[in-house]
Amino acid sequence: MTAYAALSAHFSRLSALSNAIGTLHWDHAAVMPKGAAEKRGESLALLNVLRHDMLTDARVGDWLDAADADNGLGAWERANLREIRRVYTVETAIPADLVAASTRATSACEMAWRDARAASDFKGLLPRLQEVLELQREIGRAKGEKLGLSPYDALLNDYEPGGRSAAIDALFDDLADFLPGFTEEAMAAQARRPALPALEGPFPVETQKALGLKMMAALGFDFDRGRLDVSTHPFCGGSDDDVRITTRYDEADFTSSLMGVLHETGHALYEQGRPRAFMGQPVGEARGMSVHESQSLLIEMQACRSREFLAYAAPVMREAFGGAGPAWEADSMWRRYTRVAPGFIRVDADEVTYPAHVILRYRLEKALIADAMPLAELPAAWAEGMQALLGITPPDDRRGCLQDVHWPSGGWGYFPTYTLGAMTAAQLFDAAVRADADIPAGIARGDFQPLLGWLRANVHGKGSRLSTDELLTEATGRPLDAAVFKTHLARRYLDKA
């Protein structure tokens, strides 16, 4: 067996273990009874230590060195070696006991967060969240020393390989300057339109679910390799060929849940479209979370909040709920789904104000990882930041710093990928439409195959063969350009070309 073949076999086994961990995480979030949390945390800790031991096996380093000298490898195999070495380098920076401690702490904290969020009780969550934060700082320091990065950049690198906070600072500072004035313009433009007629519920959960499943099918979701469920916080998880997405329902308002389903379906389509020839290998994984978030936001924001999609979807919605009147017309649905109004909840935020939610979280998590702010001051800092960026102050912690699962579950360094993803989504969709003029017409008739085909060829099927910058440049002709996102916002919200 060649060194490359040995590596490939080793990482196939690793992938099988990662798939089991992914399914257990989905179960933890979606259906696991509360009383099982401690035992589940122990199980996940053991599995993560086993995974860590396999990743840091000394043979991996030897195989990598030997495989580097193999002149018979193709471009995909070379890219796989690069990705294996990247993962190996990062994983060898942290000891197994730290992996276990972090897994146990995040499992317990996530379960505690559910109760704390419902009760708006940040103080009750504080001890467990403090433990998670301290472990994340330790992980960030260990990885940072190995990679020559700050602790925060080392954590960011897990979600956005090659991403650096200095570059993000410049992008986000520019957006933070741009968005307040643009938000005022967008709100003034919508104020000149007639009042939006209200949708009157209730909207039964089973009907909402059926509608969501119908839209998932239209988008191209493969139900033989995935499913839809419910969780406290919507997400996409599971494993290879078993992609699990979740949403949450509100019988008073179906519109948020439906867009949640469409958003997570964008993630799922990426997972289901990864290169099958390299499934189970690092090069066959999704490129990173800014690209992953671009796929969910491309489907939700670029495609499914467009006039074309809502011309198709409005009659389907009306029929599903037995609606009648102006509120159910396509123009009313478009106005509803493009309404700009600062709000407290990130996942319900409109496209214009959403980046402010992300900028706030990014700035706060950087300060917390750097130990520049005590965790106990998070609610006050959150309220101050919301007031500065959006002009509103949350009335309680449930609608403030407790609304997201990311920090309790250990996702420090993840948040900036949402807005990087929104910018990437605008650029990819613009390139897709330029390449195939039938894409908007297809969306208007409920046919997503032209769009999905372009994404399969230019994003999904690339796996991790290219860097994020290389993938975007190859697909669109240029690296990430904030001007494309701003032009999209102006066209949609100010009716400017």
UniProtKB/TrEMBL annotation:
One of its GO terms (biological process) is proteolysis. Signal peptide: none annotated. Its EC number is 3.4.17.19. It comes from the Bacteria. Zn(2+) binds at residues 263, 267, 293. The active site is at residue 264. CDD domains: M32_Taq. It comes from Methylopila jiangsuensis. This is Metal-dependent carboxypeptidase.
